[in-house]
Amino acid sequence: MDGFQHAVFTAATRNSTQSPASLRICGHDIDAAADQFSDLLDRAGHHRNYTEILVRDRSVGLTHGANAYGDGPEREVIFTVFRRFLEKEASFFVRGEGDCLLIRTMYLTSMPIPLSRLIELRWLGAVCGLLLVFGQFPVPISVSIFQYIFNHSNFHSIRRSFVQEWFPQLATLLTEFQSLAPSDDLTAFQSHFISHFNIEASAFHDCDLATHQHLTVMMLYKTTIAEAAFDQPELRVFAEGVLLPCCNGFNLGKHSGDSTLTFDMIIEHFLRGVGTPSPLQFQVAQGAFHPIIDLLCIDTPGFRAQALVWAATGSPFLEPTAGRIMIGPVGTDDPQIAHRERGHSFLHMCSHHLVPRGIASANPGLAT
Question: CATH top-level class for 3-153+227-255?
Answer without folding.
Answer: alpha beta
